[in-house]
Specification:
Low-confidence stretches: 1-9, 149-163, 240-335, 633-684, 1132-1154, 1212-1226, 1320-1332
Mean pLDDT: 77
Radius of gyration: 49 Å
Structural class: alpha+beta
Helix content: 25-40%
Number of helices: 31
Shape: elongated
């Protein structure tokens, strides 16, 4: 015990807070060297102590509420209280009550702290610039220190721009200097002498923070200061920025005193860095897997059940379901312990820098002997240094004047490991260093923590460990030491049940960590340096063992991290408020699941045995392992969980340790294994056992951790019940169940892995080479006791059948058929009882296996079948697609419907890799097939064939492919689809048996190509057949096709303006035809080919003259004529006749007798047939309900189509055009169900159809879109913009609308036939029926269809009426120059209806000549150009008349009614002139041609006739 030679200062007062529960107190004890610990503070929960730091004669204490307490000497203001008065009792610092303190540190007589925002404050002695503020000798209150502020950018040479204030994380103080590190790992220092590390002169000082540029490539994690030296821990930056030499001129670099003189300015640390960093840094993230088939351990895991072969009758849970490889990620890499480096600089009089000499260093130098050691904590005493490792070991160096190093001698120039000799069960948990002393905090199982002070070394070279007296029942949380002061913190809750459980858990985890750390250092690390390890990737399971070693280290990091969190919980007593969330986190559990999975995989593939027998042939491994493992046997024997592990170690050491080395160790132990010679087999066996048990060592935690969780649950159950308690208990129970499930799976999985390992050892080498992968587990194999016969095998052939957890194998001589269990089915129609025979059937994607057992063993077949079914079910539930399968086909259907992956070896899909849905061995549902040659298909399957919507890609060259997206049936293209070829060709349309059949669009070549062509129309067996439009080299044909040639009525239009119409035969115009040109030349007669006149005919010239006779020759060249010339008969022909009148009327074009054009009703027949086919009406009449059911089914299939199935692209969108012309408001209409609309409900039909027409997935929408697309292709374009096509366009538009109306009558049978009027209701018999409100083609379809085809149709009207429109515009411009009054007089408007008052408001004569009363009528009439249907245009005219009547009535107050037509016509004429409608003639012709005579009755007919008269009068106006 520590002696009581010196008396503690009796003036110290105890800081004590009010408390009611002694078990919730946290106490602080302090003592000077040689005195007894004395209580100085007692805090009450929830305030806990986070950190205490000691100076020469003062101390700072940081509490859990982030407040700062000070005590001690205040001679230079080191307490920061604004005065220089000493404090004998802990005092709450008032300056920081509004701030949160994150870190504190003190030097000899100055102090510092960092806030949670990363701001640094310093106060106290500043005589040598150690506060980093200015030149004042001291500061009695905290002052903020600016690190790398804008004014100091020239000093801070870290490179690049910096924020005004750097966010700091840690600070450390020496006697006359200060060191700090930022959150991004950069280091700054300031103060006096070489100890601050940046000066050449020991007497110089620096009052401002300077960046340590030499550590720019390092990420600093820990720092500490001795009296005159610095020590820190770092790791190399993963992405270091290029370091620029921006050292200020006033700072010089100096070579190390032990380094030879050089003309370069490279410092020793730079030289070391160049040497040590010349190669790549070993990092888990830099691991590049070696691709060795079939080993797949180059990727990470998801989690799985460790026992893949489970009883099929057991309930399937979601615990640890998956073990499929996934893309490599860094999920588990972050907790791998970094490769640490220790750097020191400053005074080195006693070797405290650990560099092997006593020379001072002005710049940081790395301690090479500690490189790679996992440092947990570093601490600097006055003249010595200590490194505490993660495996509870300590390294010490520097002054040993009072035995503080635990070594012999007066000093140590290099770090040396200290062997703890305070008991075999004691391990170090923390360390603290004073000026000439070292304190150790130890732990042991079933014991309270102890504090030891290392005293002077005795003659026997053993260090003396003096125990410090601590109060009973107190749990020691932390220790601190500095100069001659010491203190420790205790928590009075040693008897708290949760504290006891967590304390024992911490001890067990620390012990386990020490064991696995020693195993890693002594066995795994040396093995990884052998030649065998370099080539381990090339063998079966090589990547698995590498992954296992890597996971071993990852698990170490997570276990250490968990222990740190647990220790923090014990120190802060967070468990008192049931804060156990860190225990219920699944990160460590997931790591254990992953590690256990890889361990069992490595065991099953027998790679551990191979690795042990091969790697241990190296003497370096055996000697290193012997010396290190003997320490485990000698010191940790009683604490090892596995007694077999220690026996294996003894056997190994006695077998391989050199006798001289063994003798030196055996003299120190009473329990020494005897050295005896053993054979090679025993030696190899000890290798296997040793490595296997070393790798199994981390899994021992499963045994005690689940019992710890159960103890916590039991402990909470005995406490008063509350919502928080119940919540925590539930979480702990769930976690305990998961750990227990893992333990049970590990036990079962171990047995399965052992069974598999022995199978691989006994099977043939070829089978092992072909099949052996880590994930496989043997379930059953054929043998004499377990026979199974293949029905197709010969008399003298023998087939072996092997059932693994993932695959079923049929092996025969050199052939091997492997079927994954996810694509293996038992015959669902087979009798499960198997009473009549021992035969059962297995179905695979490529063959059907009929298997049987001998009759001597009746239950063999049933046992096989049960095992296969159970293995299939387990494989399905553990596959990555288990949740998808369960969601889609739950319950018993899971055995028939699957989502799985398979590689075909034969058949139509040979070398194709499929991923998708199956049904009893057949591809069925959505899936994706890819071949090695680049072909791929993604879409729907049915009975092993492409069926439904899908995309098929056929590669043509390295970077380009033909792509088909569309519908399939029975493996062939069938239905609507589009294909794009590499050469730029594209087909969009319908298919039948892989041939273009039905309506389609074929584009060949690019638009800018001279040989480009375009066809839209009907196809039959890949040939153009039926009506179609073909455009090639500026020449367009619109007519009938047969066998890919023009054959039938048709029209040819050229870019030269030639218009040909007639009958074609075998691609030539033959017989009677008509030829028209732009200059009004017309030929009607016989042709032998396109534009080749051959036979009788009549040639009419533009002036009316004509020639009748015989013609031979090509138009445009010389033509032989034999006939009569006749001049124009002026009496019969009107000079003002329009060129439009020369054309055949639409009625003539639509007649069956005409040979000049195709009957409009024959156009686009295939589109209407396809619509009838979809709704089921292609064979005749159909019940409307059945038609709607077909529409609903088709819409539902498209709606529920998987997202991965590509959508069929449409060639042109018409929705925007339709929405512009439609006046129907948006409404919520469900298109997938039959609408509840009567055929006589115009508004209801309009609402439904307006939505259906805009939906390309609706059959009606697809039909309308295709019809509009065909119309636009027909009459848009350079060749299509020919005025002679107007009659064709008019006839086609009317025909399409009429046929569409008839199609709608199939779905709405109560719609009246076109032209009929629905019977009125009884209540309306006395009312006049307004025809435009009845359902008809005009009222229903004109507003919906004409806006979509209006642009090309009206363009033809404008071209045809161009001359008349020009005359109309010229006259209109003349009339627009008149004032209203003059124009009214000119038009003959009755003075009464001019609406211009004779006098103004003041009674004076009115000199205004403009009329404002007709402005509404004018603006209304102008809207005629914004309407797209003739009825809408007529209603505009009607509204215009209403506005005229309204204006007159308003002006005359209903006393000047406009009734007489002689008065109405001039007024309306005035409105038409002022409206200035640019294409009024075309508007009139459009209404006249598209409206039925049945509509133009009564008032509408009168108004339309009035509009025509006004147009004719304006056009005939003489200028």
């Amino acid at each position: 015990m520590e002696s009581n030679g010196n008396k503690q200062n009796e003036d110290v007062q105890v800081y004590e807070e009010d408390h009611t529960d002694d078990d919730c107190q946290m106490k602080v004890y302090a003592w000077d060297q040689g005195a007894e610990p004395q209580l100085i503070a007692s805090l009450t929960y929830p305030r806990r102590i986070l950190k205490i730091t000691l100076g020469l004669q003062h101390a700072l204490m940081l509490t859990s509420d982030r407040q700062l307490f000070t005590v001690g000497s205040n001679s230079v203001g080191q307490l920061g209280l604004g005065d220089m008065v000493d404090r004998k009792c802990l005092t709450l610092h008032p300056y920081f009550q509004q701030l949160e303190i994150a870190y504190v540190a003190v030097g000899s007589r100055h102090s510092s702290c960092i806030t949670s925002q990363g701001q640094l404050y310093c106060w106290g002695d500043n005589s040598q610039g150690q506060c980093g503020i200015g030149r004042d000798s001291c500061y009695t209150t905290p002052v903020k220190v600016s690190v790398c502020s804008p004014t100091d950018l020239q000093i801070c040479s870290c490179g690049g721009d910096h924020p005004s204030v750097i966010e700091l994380a840690q600070v450390a103080c020496g006697q006359a200097h200060t060191l700090t590190v930022s959150s991004n790992g950069q280091c700054w220092t300031w103060g006096q002498g070489c100890d601050y590390g940046l000066a050449d002169d020991d007497d110089s000082d620096q009052a401002r923070p300077l960046c340590v540029n030499e550590l720019a490539d390092e990420f600093v994690t820990q720092i500490d200061c001795g009296l005159f030296h610095n020590i820190l821990v770092s790791h190399p930056r993963q992405h270091p920025n290029q370091h620029l030499d921006t050292t200020p001129r006033h700072r010089k670099t100096k070579s190390d005193t032990n380094t030879a003189k050089s003309t370069t300015t490279t410092t020793p640390v730079d030289i070391k860095r160049k040497v040590s960093r010349s190669g790549s840094i070993s990092s888990m993230n830099a691991y590049t897997p070696f691709s060795v088939s079939p080993d797949i351990y180059a990727v990470d895991y998801t989690f799985t059940s460790l026992n893949q072969h489970r009883d099929s009758n057991l309930e399937i849970t979601d615990d640890f379901i998956m073990v499929e490889p996934k893309p490599r990620s860094s999920t588990f890499i972050n907790c791998v312990q970094q490769i640490t480096e220790v750097w020191t600089w400053g005074n080195n009089s006693y070797g405290q820098l650990g560099l092997g000499d006593k020379s001072a260093r002005h710049i940081p130098c790395r301690i090479e002997s500690l490189k790679g050691v996992a440092i947990k904590k570093i601490t600097a005493g006055g003249y010595h240094s200590i490194a505490f490792t993660t495996d509870c070991q300590i390294y010490t160096w520097g002054s040993n004047s009072r035995g503080q190093l635990g070594l012999s001698g007066q000093l140590s120039l290099i770090p040396q490991q200290v062997e703890l000799s305070v008991g075999i069960d004691q391990r170090i948990s923390s360390v603290a260093a004073g000026e000439n002393q070292t304190l150790l905090l130890t732990f042991a199982a079933n014991q309270k923590n102890q504090i030891y002070r290392i005293d002077s070394v005795a003659k026997d070279s053993k260090a003396t460990y003096i125990s410090i007296t601590i109060p009973k029942q107190d749990y020691i949380c932390a220790i601190a030491s500095s100069y001659n002061q010491n203190c420790f913190v205790t928590a009075r809750n040693q008897n708290h049940p949760i504290q006891k459980i967590l304390h024992e858990l911490l001890i067990q985890d620390r012990v386990l960590y020490c064991q696995i750390a020693t195993a890693r250092k002594s066995i795994l690390s040396p093995m990884k340096q052998t030649e065998y390890w370099k080539g381990v990737r090339g063998i079966i399971g090589g990547n698995c063992i590498r992954k296992l070693f890597e996971s071993f280290e990852i698990l170490m990091g997570h276990l250490d991290d968990f222990s740190d969190k647990l220790e923090n919980i014990l120190v802060t007593q967070e468990y008192l408020n049931l804060n156990l969330t860190f225990i219920e986190q699944n990160s460590l559990l997931n790591i254990y699941i992953r590690y256990a999975t890889i361990f069992l995989d490595a065991l099953a593939v027998d790679i551990i045995t191979k690795c042990a027998s091969s790697a241990w042939q190296s003497d370096d491994v055996t000697i290193a392992a012997s010396s290190e493992l003997w320490k485990i046997i000698n010191n940790y024997y009683k604490t090892l969980p596995l007694s077999g592990f220690s026996l294996s170690l003894k056997s190994f050491v006695s077998e391989y340790m050199p006798k001289s080395l063994f003798a030196s160790f055996s003299s120190k132990s009473n329990n020494v294994p005897s050295i005896k010679s053993s054979g090679f087999k025993e030696t190899a066996k000890s290798h296997e056992t040793l490595l296997e048990q070393v790798l199994y060592l981390p899994l021992n935690r499963l045994k005690y951790f689940k019992s710890v969780l159960n103890d916590l649950v039991q402990c909470l159950a005995n406490t008063p019940s509350s919502d928080d308690t119940e919540k925590v208990m539930k979480q702990l129970k769930n976690l305990s169940a998961r750990w227990e499930s893992l333990d049970n799976s590990l036990k079962a999985g171990y047995s399965s892995a052992e069974k598999t390992k022995h199978f691989w050892r006994e099977c043939s080498p070829k089978l092992r080479e072909h099949l052996c992968i880590p994930q496989l587990r043997l379930i059953r194999t054929t043998s004499k006791k377990d026979p199974l016969q293949y029905s197709k095998s010969g008399r003298f052939t023998n087939h072996n059948f092997i059932l693994f957890n993932r695959v079923f194998v049929r092996h025969h001589q050199n052939s091997c058929f492997i079927c994954p269990l996810t694509t293996l089915w038992t015959d669902p129609n087979e009798d499960p009882s198997l009473t009549s025979s021992n035969i059962f059937t297995l179905i695979t994607p490529e063959e059907t296996l009929v298997l049987s057992a001998t009759s001597a063993i009746a239950r063999v077949s049933k046992d096989w079948l049960d095992d296969i079914k159970g293995a299939i079910l387990n494989s399905l539930t553990s596959s990555p697609y288990a949740k998808l399968q369960k969601r889609q086909y739950g319950g018993s259907n899971l055995l028939q419907y699957r989502y799985a992956e398979y590689l075909f070896n034969s058949g139509d899909y040979k070398e194709g890799k499929y991923l998708g849905w199956w049904f009893v061995g057949k591809l069925h549902g959505h899936g994706e097939m890819k071949w090695n040659d680049g072909r791929s298909y993604i879409g729907q399957f049915k009975k092993n064939l492409f069926h439904g919507t899908g995309q098929y890609i056929t590669p043509v060259n390295q970077n380009q492919s033909d792509v088909y997206v569309g519908e399939w049936r029975s493996g062939k293209r069938y239905g609507y689809g589009t294909i794009k070829f590499v050469n730029g060709d594209e087909y969009i349309g319908f298919w039948c048996h892989d041939m273009r059949h039905g309506h389609g669009i074929m584009k060949q070549g690019s638009v800018t190509s001279a040989n480009s062509s375009f066809y839209i129309g009907e196809w039959s067996c890949n040939n153009k057949s039926g009506y179609g439009i073909y455009d090639h080299k500026g020449k367009r044909y619109m007519g009938i096709w047969s066998n890919d040639t023009r054959h039938g009525e048709g029209v040819v239009i050229t870019l030269d303006g030639i218009f040909l119409a007639g009958s074609f035969n075998n691609d030539r115009l033959v017989g009677n035809g008509i030829l028209l040109t732009d200059d009004k030349t017309k030929f009607v007669g016989e042709f032998s080919s396109d534009a080749i006149l051959s036979g009788k005919g009549v040639l009419t010239f533009p002036n009316g003259d004509r020639i009748e006779g015989s013609f031979n020759g090509k138009w445009g060249n010389s033509i032989k004529i034999n006939g009569s010339f006749m001049r124009k008969n002026t009496a019969d022909i009107d000079d003002e006749r329009s060129f439009y009148d020369m054309l055949p009327s639409p009625s003539e074009l639509s007649s069956e007798e005409s040979n000049y054009a195709v009957n409009p009703d024959k156009k686009w027949h295939s589109l209407f047939f396809q619509f009838r086919l979809v709704i089921g009406a292609h064979r005749g009449d159909i019940d409307p309900k059945s038609a709607w059911n077909n529409i609903t089914d088709g819409m539902e299939k498209l709606k529920n189509k998987p997202a991965a199935v590509p959508s069929i692209p449409t060639s042109r969108s018409t929705q925007s055009i339709g929405s512009i012309g439609s006046d129907v408001a948006d409404s919520d209409v469900d298109l997938t169900i039959a609408p509840n609309v009567k055929g006589t409900d115009l508004q209801g039909l309009t609402n439904y159809l307006s939505k259906a027409f805009d939906d390309p997935n609706h059959p009606i929408g697809r039909l309308v879109e295709s019809l509009v697309e065909a119309f636009r292709y027909s009459y848009l374009g350079i060749a299509a913009n020919h005025r002679l096509l107007l009659p064709h366009a008019i006839g086609e538009a009317k025909s399409v609308i009429n046929r569409l109306y008839e199609c709608l009558r199939i779905l709405f049978p109560d719609m009246p036939a076109d032209g009929e009027i629905a019977a009125p209701n009884s209540d309306d018999t006395e009312e006049i029926i307004n025809t435009q409100e009845s359902v008809s083609c005009i009222s229903l379809l004109h507003p919906l269809i004409l806006p979509r085809i209006y642009p090309p149709l009206f363009t033809l009207y404008a071209l045809n009426n161009e001359q008349e429109e020009e005359s109309y515009k010229r006259k209109l411009r003349r009339l627009s120059k008149y004032t209203d009054l003059i124009l009214m007089k000119k038009l003959g408007i009755n003075k009464k209806f001019r609406l211009i008052p004779d006098k103004d408001e003041n009674g004076e004569p009115n000199e205004c000549e403009n009329c404002l009363y007709y402005s509404d009528a004018i603006s209304t009439l102008q809207q005629i150009s914004t309407k797209f249907s003739p009825m809408q245009k007529l209603l505009v005219v009607k509204d215009c008349f209403s506005e005229i009547f309204k204006a007159v009535d308003t002006f005359w107050n209903d006393f000047g009614t406009l009734k007489a037509m002689d008065d109405i016509l001039p007024v309306f004429h005035f409105v038409v002139v002022r409206a200035e409608i640019s294409q009024l003639g075309s508007e009139i012709l459009f209404i006249q041609n598209m409206i039925d005579d049945s509509v133009l009755l009564g008032e509408l007919d009168m108004m339309f006739t009035t509009l025509q008269a006004c147009y004719f009068q304006i056009k005939s106006e003489e200028l």
